[in-house]
Amino acid sequence: MKILHVVTYISPDGAYGGPVRVAINQAKVLTELGHDVVVAAAAGGFEGSLPAEFDGFPVRLFPARRLVPKSGFAGLTSLGLLRWLAHAVRGADVVHVHMARDMVTLPAAAIALLRNKPLVVQTHGMIAPTKHPLARPLDCTITNPILHRSSTVLYLTEVERGDLIARSSKTLTLQQLANGVVAGNYLAGEQLTGANPRPEVLFLARLHERKRPLFLVESAAQLANHWPSARWRIVGPDEGEGAKVEAAILAQNLTEVMEWEGAMDPSYTLMRMQEASIYVLPAVQEPFGMTALEAMAIGLPVVVTESCGLAPVVRKNHAGIVCGDSQHEVTQAIDTLLRNPNLRIAMGKHARKAVENQYSMQAIGKRLLKVYGDATGHKVAA
Predict the structure, then answer these.
(1) Domain boundaries, position 246
(2) Which of 116, 125, 182, 299 could form a disulfide with 191 if both were Cys (CB 3.0 to 4.6 A apart)?
């Protein structure tokens, strides 16, 4: 089967986050299962010409252009990508679009429909309710018609499913699909050598307001005197909070124990996580939390809030601590894990086992092939 994946934006610093990781992981496993997969995206931030490979997988990348100033990823488009897609979709058996309200994936999905190709859209929690004044007209004219005409709409959580149903005046063909992760031989350091006398508390995600990296700075300020040997690290591209993080580290006199390391090539994420003892994602309304899942996969205990899509999995499997959204509750959860090294090591083991049992890419690849088979009307061999 020839499968075409489209995702909004690929860059060397992983600025677009989880959807890119998901698309690449899916493409890799589908290729391993014997299928012909292409991943296409708008791109930027690379030195020289755009690469033909990303995170070890062949990709078709095209220069991104910003149509709307100060609009984040929603204002990006790529005329080169859209021109290429107009021809490329003809050779695809199914088109899988990792869709958001943007001018890359919405036109890509529309092109697939105009070519009468089976279309699978995966929304990654990105078509959520919003008060943005342009969202309603955009949804009425473009987003909702695409969802209605898609062969299948893939969702992550029951919250996302409810949002999709509530927004639609027609019946959608909905199927749940979890994110998957490939941990390989990576394993958290404390799983190999026991409790680290200098434990590292790690935030690795985009520095965006919703991710709340400033919460980790405040937690460090409150706990640094209690745990002077602890190290506090923030890793990720700046999405509006970078200057605030740097200023807060200075204002709280944390420069000896805390550092923002900047952005990182996504292919090094798991390697970097190995150095940590605790992974913290204080984000609110996090649809799933791909970096939290990756941390769990290598045996790190995680701290996530109640509104994270992974919270039920973390709680059920004793894979970390699920806390409320307040600063005090996040700080208290971190303190608990710093105070109890045996607990965090045990939770890390539970986390790794949970990922192995529930989020293996082989199982997700086979599930996707069933989705594609339903979309095309032909059984697809796994």
Answers:
(1) 189-358
(2) 299
Q: Considering its fold, how many domains does the chain have in total?
A: 2
Identify which of 381, 382, 364, 377 has the alpha carbon closest to the alpha carbon of residue 93.
Answer: 377
Residue 323's DSSP bridge partners are: 305
Judgement on whether residues 138 and 282 belong to the same structural domain of the protein: no
Q: Is residue 266 part of a domain?
A: yes
Q: Give yes or no: residues 157 and 262 share one domain.
A: no
Q: Write out pLDDT tens, residues 210-249.
A: 999 999 999 999 999 999 999 999 999 998 999 999 999 9
For position 256, which CATH number holds?
3.40.50.2000
pTM of the entire predicted model: 0.79
Are 366 and 339 in the same domain?
no
Amino acid 322: pLDDT: 98
Q: How far is 52 from 296, CA to CA, in rounded Å?
A: 30
Evaluate whether residue 106 is within a structural domain: yes
Backbone angles phi, psi at 321, to 5 degrees: -120, 130
- 351-363 pLDDT per residue, tens: 999 998 888 888 8
User: In whole numbers, what is the pLDDT of the chain averaged over residues?
Assistant: 93
Distances (CA, A) of 211 to 109, 331, 381: 28, 15, 40
Kindly report, residue by residue over 303-337, the tens digit of the pLDDT: 999 999 899 999 999 999 999 999 999 999 999 99
Mark whether 272 and 255 lie in a shared domain.
Answer: yes
DSSP reduced 3-state for 353: helix
- Same structural domain for residues 152 and 256? no
The DSSP annotation for 238-264 comes to BSS-HHHHHHHHHHTT-TTTEEEEE--
Q: Is the domain of 330 the same as that of 371?
A: no
Angle CA 269–99–21, to nearest 5: 15
* 27 within domain boundaries: yes
Q: How far apart are CA 91 and CA 28, in angstroms?
A: 20
Contacts of 281 (CB under 8 A, 6+ apart): 203, 205, 211, 289, 291, 292, 302, 303, 304, 305, 308
Percent above pLDDT 70 for the chain: 99
pLDDT band, very low/low/confident/very high, at 347 (cuts 50, 70, 90):
very high
